[in-house]
Each structure stands twice: as structure tokens, then as C-alpha cells.
Write a structure and sequence with these properties.
The relative contact order is 0.19. About 15% of the residues have low confidence. By secondary structure, the chain is of the alpha+beta class. The chain has a 3-stranded antiparallel beta sheet, covered by helices on one side. Strand 2 and strand 3 form a beta hairpin. It is about 40% helix and about 15% strand.
Length: about 100
């Protein structure tokens, strides 16, 4: 019974967040370079955008985080790369 709860609960939370339009609020912290090299889906979209900042549930929340980083002066440009199935979006920045 506990195993089913552990398997079903995360799926329900992700589904509820998608239905309610709640995006992941991931802090803008650079991930280690090893993570970007080990997973082929985590590759930057454009040249010069080689710092991985995190993932978001929707493209809008990814763009909001990218715009907020520009407004704070943390980076000059960003891109939001869709993940597998277009469900998650990955934020890449130039610095």
C-alpha cells in the first residue's frame, strides 16, 4: 500500500499543478556542468547559453524566471528549451 502511495502521489501533485497552472519555482542557481553533459535532453539551444538554471512546469513560468533574471542583471539573454513531451521547460542563460 505504501509503495502505491509513493508512486501515485508525485504524479497527482504534478497533475494538480498542471491543471491549476502552478509552475515550479526553482531558484536561479547554476547546476554543475556534469548534469548538462550527461543528459542529452539537457543541452543549450543557442551558442553562448551554456548555464543551466533549472526546470519549470510551463513555458510561461520559464519565461518569467528568464525575464526576472534579466531585470536583476544576472544574465543578458536566456532560452526556454522544451523537455521530453513538451511537459517541462529548461532555462538556459548566457552567464
Amino acid at each position: 500500500m505504501k509503495t502505491r502511495v509513493r508512486m501515485v502521489l508525485p504524479a497527482l501533485l504534478v497533475s494538480a499543478a498542471a491543471v491549476l497552472g502552478v509552475g515550479a519555482t526553482v531558484p536561479a542557481v547554476a547546476a554543475p556542468a556534469v548534469a548538462a553533459q550527461s543528459a542529452p535532453s539537457l543541452r543549450p539551444l543557442a551558442d553562448g547559453q551554456d548555464v543551466y538554471r533549472g526546470w519549470y512546469f510551463t513555458k510561461e513560468t520559464c519565461r518569467d524566471a528568464g525575464d526576472a533574471g534579466i531585470a536583476r542583471g544576472h544574465w543578458d539573454n536566456y532560452s526556454c528549451a522544451p523537455g521530453k513531451g513538451g511537459f517541462l521547460h529548461h532555462l538556459w542563460t548566457n552567464r
